[in-house]
Specification:
21 strands; Porin; 7% helix; 17-stranded antiparallel beta sheet
């Protein structure tokens, strides 16, 4: 039975409405390869993020290699929802007299655990490859990166970095962040030969950011005897755009792919906040998404066995918001100071019965956050490195249900407190993070 175009449109519109919920959800996504999610959708996540060369699903293909979409025939629609369960802690120590005689009079040390321990992100992908055509068309909405913490203010001085800002304490008070980024790639792929395909996507994007306090803005003194940072308490939106392109070549049992994703250039986030006297201050911050280069290979040694491996390079050192570190002359923080990283992931998909396929994968990512800059990165502890994943696909005729789980093992970094004059002896701050995630996806081929 043919599916009418208006039925497909209605399905897409309904899924789009659900996906937009991610823009309104009160907590952020949590990245695992830097601040990127290691995979896009349940199949790609279960495969350790590998899809650039293996082309197993529409969501992973749109995310990592647009050329792969030419490998699908007819209409393919996928929708998924991901539940994140991150765990983060923040510890700090200030030795007696670290800030000067009697400041503090005794050593202060403690640990706090972040709130915001649950988040949900939906997404969808749609590929249309008309019968007999060399061209395939695709569109999607994918949550690809984010971070977030919520450490409450510490009033008993047991965790000094969370004590109130000066003059009532030594720290920042409550530290809360919420960042999420949604891509909406739309593009075309072309089957150049039986083996070679190329693809291109325009990538309009949307992001939101909240940071409490907001050290990227100069400290103010109004209403206080000491300078203090205002808070970017509401989630400010910013629109951006980029592009991506890829190539895929298939041999009989081996396939290779490569793709390039440009930076996503965003407009500035803007806030208008009041100081203790009620005076308004305009604040702004720009944070782009770094360019990503992916290479991948796939192999099908048997009819029902598929193996994929991807390697990716993330260029944080040339990305606004991440490239710079330290303090500006006005006392504001210049940026996160992240380093470029490589991530590598792979997985196996195996048919175990007529209607069930199982998958397992592993992903390793370098840590972009230098230990020496732990102090500046307490709002964005994107430090996990090792991930294991697994899942299954249940065929339901032309539809399928996919369930995936992954675990990101705990990692930690430590470094000194940093003032405008440099690291402060006798101080330390430590961030720890781990994560669990479950994704449920539904797919249908028309």
């Amino acid at each position: 039975m043919k599916i009418k175009f208006n039925q497909i449109s209605a399905a897409l519109i309904n899924s789009l409405v659900l996906a937009i919920l991610v823009l309104l959800w009160p907590v952020a996504a949590h990245g695992t390869d830097g601040h990127f999610l290691h995979g896009a959708g349940p199949v790609n996540e279960a495969m350790g993020g590998a899809d650039t060369g293996i082309c197993l699903d529409a969501t992973g293909s749109i995310a990592w290699n647009a050329a792969c979409t030419a490998r699908f025939q007819g209409r393919r629609f996928e929708f998924h929802g991901t539940l994140f369960f991150p765990w983060r802690s923040l510890s700090s120590t200030v030795n007696a007299d670290a800030f000067g005689p009697g400041m503090p009079p005794v050593t202060l040390s403690g640990t706090s655990v972040s709130g915001s321990n649950f988040s949900l992100m939906p997404g969808f992908a749609f590929v249309y490859h008309p019968s007999g055509s060399s061209n395939a068309y695709h569109v999607g909405m994918l949550a690809v990166s984010g971070f977030g913490v919520d450490y409450p203010q510490n009033t008993d001085f047991s965790n000094p970095i969370l004590t109130p800002q000066a003059p009532n304490g030594f720290g920042f008070g409550q530290i809360k962040s919420n960042y999420m980024l949604v891509m909406m790639p739309i593009g075309i792929a072309r089957q150049m030969t039986e083996r070679l395909s190329i693809g291109f996507s325009a990538v309009p994007s949307f992001s939101m950011l909240q940071v409490i306090p907001a050290p990227f803005s100069p400290p103010v003194t109004d209403g206080s005897t000491m300078p203090y940072y205002l808070s970017a308490g509401n989630r400010a939106p910013a629109m951006g755009a980029g592009f991506s392109g890829g190539v895929h070549y298939a041999f009989s049992k081996l396939s290779l792919g490569a793709s390039y994703r440009s930076p996503v250039w965003f407009r500035e986030f803007n806030w208008n906040r009041k100081d203790l006297t009620g005076a308004s201050h305009a604040m702004s911050f720009q944070m782009n998404l770094p360019q990503v280069v992916s290479i991948g290979a796939g192999a099908s040694p048997a009819k029902n066995t598929h193996i994929g491996v991807d390697a990716r390079w993330f260029n944080y050192e040339n990305t606004a918001g991440f490239a710079k570190s330290g303090y500006n002359a006005d006392g504001s923080v210049a940026g996160f100071g992240w380093k470029n990283i490589w991530a590598i992931g792979g997985g196996v998909q195996q048919q175990v019965s007529k209607s069930i396929q199982v998958m397992g994968g592993y992903n390793f990512s370098q840590n972009p956050v230098p230990s020496s800059l732990t102090f500046f990165n307490t709002p964005a502890p994107a430090i996990v490195q090792h991930h294991v994943s697994g899942g299954f696909i249940k065929s339901l005729g032309k539809s399928d249900l996919t369930v995936t789980y992954y675990h990101a093992f705990e990692n930690s970094i430590s470094g000194p407190w940093i003032s405008g004059q440099g690291p402060i002896p006798g101080t330390s701050v430590t961030s720890k993070m781990s994560e669990n995630s479950v994704t449920i996806g539904f797919g249908k081929t028309f």
